[in-house]
Amino acid sequence: MTHGRGYLKEGVLPHMWCAGCGIGTMMGAMLRAFEELGFGRTDTVVVTGIGCTGKLDDYLVTNALHTTHGRALAYATGVKAFNPRLHVVVVMGDGDGVTIGGNHFIHAARRNIDLTALVLNNLNYGMTGGQASATSPASSITSTTAYGNPEREFDICALAETAGANFVARATTYHGWDLQRSITQALTRKGFSLVEVMSPCPTQFGRRNDMKETQAMLHSLRDRSMPVAQYRALPACERVNRFPVGTLVDRDEPGFVERYALVQQRAAPEARIA
Amino acid sequence: MQGNEAIAEGALYAGARFYAGYPITPSSEIAEHCSLRLPQLGGVFIQMEDELASIAAVVGASLAGAKAFTATSGPGFSLMQENLGLAVMGEVPCVVVNVQRAGPSTGLATKPAQADIMQVRWGRHGDQSVIALCPATVRECFTLAVQAFNFAERFRVPVVLMPDEVVGHTRENIVLPAPGELDVVDRKAPTGKPADYLPFAADPDGVAPLAAYGSDYVFHVTSSMHGRDGYSNNDPANATWRVRQLHDKIARHRDEIVLTRTFDVDDMDILLVTHGATTRAGRAAALEARARGVKAGVLQLQTIWPFPDREVAALAARVRTVIVPEMNYSGQLAGEVRKVLGSGVDIRRVNRWNGTIIGPQDILDVMLRPAAAEENA
Questions:
Q1: A12-273: CATH architecture
Q2: B48 and A77: CB-CB below 8 Å?
Q3: CATH number of the domain that B184 lies in?
Q4: Can you tell me the ipTM of this complex?
């Protein structure tokens, strides 16, 4: 056990993320999950996009592909479709994953492409100065919604479930071990698996939304989150300002890799005749 | 066989085993043909949600070891520019076929044009060089598709194959090259110890070996500025070297990349500079001119970028008039020719931009006009 250190590039710590940010926590959980599952450096490809979360690949010694904003899932789809033996893990923020990249997100889920997406949701664009993203809550204050966000936010997990993902879980960076367990589960599922990782962004989001202290957003995640079963047992009126954590969807439908193998089988006899 | 089908077959001949695309007229036959053929060959055809995703998946597959390509047209090609930039920056071999149609915007969706010449060259942000090839016949669709992959693999660059709609949809009989008849180039693989592999450390030829994800060689690729090891690097000295190297690996092999053909140029007084569909019209016009006692010859540009400046200059030095027919309004190719030849030369443009093709008579009319007529007349 090295707590995932074997996947970390030497000499890169301390990382660049702000005090109180959850990206480092998520990275740690992901690397411990890799170790738990015995992922090798050579057969693992971490694909990232742009933003605070997109910087994550700089710390790793696995294969990595750092891509353009919002397109990480599309790049990853090409990697996995051509070489299904690879473990392909896509790490994005909420801007990358479901705002600029929303179209790729729903189609990756619909296609049920066999890869794991970790979407770190810190409710805004941290790196560019705290602008509103598609997950900024309605009425929240960001650097582009000074009078309150007039738009409603996406529920990332509901989006993935509806679009057809095999596995959907939500975790927070407050609950480190639960987070790691969700990531481990996601990495072992076929088809498209998603873990939404709720994370504080004290620097940009917290300070504008009455959570000025570094730990305030973390405490908010602790206080608002609730195990799935418990959450589902609540009447709708009591769900306000709460969100479920844990496994939300766990289906066993064939993924793209399995379905495409059938396509190749059907095509093969024709090739022999030709 | 149709031009678009010949492009698809040429790609397969070159070893392409991955296609990701989004349907768009007049390129869709390439996707359809690949959806039929690639699964037969154990390859992958995947229809993506848009053109942004198509080129992204192509780049991902290429890094997993595939010879990979996509095909599109005008609006789709515009959408691909951003991720094409990543292919340049990350030095990822791939081929993009842009079957040119008339714009602006969705324009004349089913009609031909040659108006993307400058978009191919300059369409992406940042400063970069590209390789672009343009076939004039169905056979060239096949052979230049093979050549496009060879250049992409040899130089670790995206290559744009840019037929116009006329060539893409032309049907003619061709003899397909036998296996082994055309050279097929594979990317240079690393040979040293995996621990020592630097994916962007160029060999003396300006090109670094490229591993595949899943091999013993672990590597990073990024759209951001990076060092020889593939990790982010914002040092000005590194950026100075990096951008220069991206340009230089194409510029220094320019003679290998620039492909042209000439017809009846030995005794000519008038030079036609053609590409794609204007080549046949130009040759017909030149033959008709000779029948009327005017000695005309044709230089066909198969490589558009890097621009065949020396080839144009060498032939233009022997004539009194240069004629550049092209299916666009602003004379994109003529502008390049003017840049090469300077202001003292009689360069005449023949342009059409309304979705109809340039015929031999259009060229002949301009050719037989008295000398010293104004450019743009």
A1: 3-Layer(aba) Sandwich (3.40)
A2: yes
A3: 3.40.50.970
A4: 0.97
